[in-house]
Amino acid sequence: MPRNRDECLAPTDRVGERTNGPVGHSASAMPQARPIPWLRGAIGGILMGLANLVPGVSGGTMILIIGLYDALISAIADVTRLRFTLHNVVLIGIVAGTAGLAIVLLAGPLRNLVVLQPTAMYALFIGMTLGGAPLLWRMMSPPKPASMLAVAVGFLILVGVAVSSTSHSRLTKEDKARIQELVRRGEFPIKSDIPLDLAAGVLGMSAMVLPGISGAYMLLLLGRYEAILGAVAAMKDYALSFGKEGDPTALAVIVPVAIGSLVSLVAVTNVLKWLLQHREKPTVGLLLGILLGSVITLVQRMEFAAGLDYALAGLLLPCGFVATIFLSRVGARGN
Question: Would you say residue 32 has pLDDT above 80?
Answer without folding.
Answer: no
